[in-house]
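Quick one: structure for this chain?
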Amino acid sequence: MIDNSALREGSPNSETAVARTVIVVNQLGLHARPAAQLAQEAQNFQAEIAILCDSQEVDAKSILDILTLAAAQGSTLELRAEGVDAVEALDCLEGLFKSKFGEDK
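Got it. Here's what it folds into:
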């Protein structure tokens, strides 16, 4: 498996905030099914989680917000989380990108 993300933990805004960069590798991009999976997993964490694409920042817990990114294959996204379980949340979400959300394409 190609490691398609880069860990960039740090303190963008506070001691509990972390960020990671991921690349959308799915052939169809971040379409409805992976967006739903991403939002559903993000909702399992207390941390506030945002996704940044170019100049857009959206709530990772909202499928509609994620779909507004229109992230095509090859898009670079930044995941940001802040809260008590921020690292665990980004570990989980990064894993979804690495596994191509369970899709073959």
